[in-house]
Amino acid sequence: MAGQENLVSLADRTTEEQREIARMGAAASKAKKRGRKSMQETWDVIRKMPLEDGEASEIEAIQSVGAVKNANITVEQAMIFAIAKRAMKGDVRAFQALQKYTESGRITEDLTRERAELELEKLRLEVDAYHRAAERVDTGVTILDDIPDS
């Protein structure tokens, strides 16, 4: 096989050479992870930015797809609308991308997080209501601190 003579087996390398190769691989892996983390953090900031100056519009307040043009939506929302427009025109790949993104992507994660936060807030309110109700209940028991001496 051509190039076979250029291959070096691990048995031909010293332990120190193997360690050095492993160190270089670990350093490259760490650098790649840092780069990915930095890109992810940057995207997390950018995707939440409004397209124009000022506060982003609440997406729930937008009544139709046509009204999106006049709304100050976030970068991520604009991208989703652009993909949705292409999907509505029959672009199957756009539909698949949107479907994949909503099923396993950030939207699902964000909604799950929001639902969990709402559920936690609901539980906190229920506990507070329970404690307030418990403070108002008169048990009808009188506790006497003074026991008469005989």
Q: How would you concisely characterize the structure shown here?
A:
The protein has 4 helices and no strands. The protein has 150 residues and is mainly alpha-helical.
SSE layout and pairing:
Layout: H1 15-46, H2 75-88, H3 92-104, H4 106-136
Helix pairs in contact: 2-3, 3-4
Notes on the protein architecture:
It contains 4 helices and no strands. The mean pLDDT is 80. The chain has one domain (13-135). The protein has 150 residues and is mainly alpha-helical.
Features:
150 residues; mainly alpha; 4 helices
Domains, number:
1
Rg, nearest Å: 31 Å
pLDDT averaged residue by residue = 80
Q: Termini distance?
A: 111 Å
Low-confidence stretches: none
Gross morphology is flat
Report the portion of residues in β strands: under 5%
What letter string, H or E per element, gives the SSE order? HHHH
Extended strand count: 0
Largest sheet composition: none
Structural class: mainly alpha
Helix content: 55-70%
Total helices: the number is 4
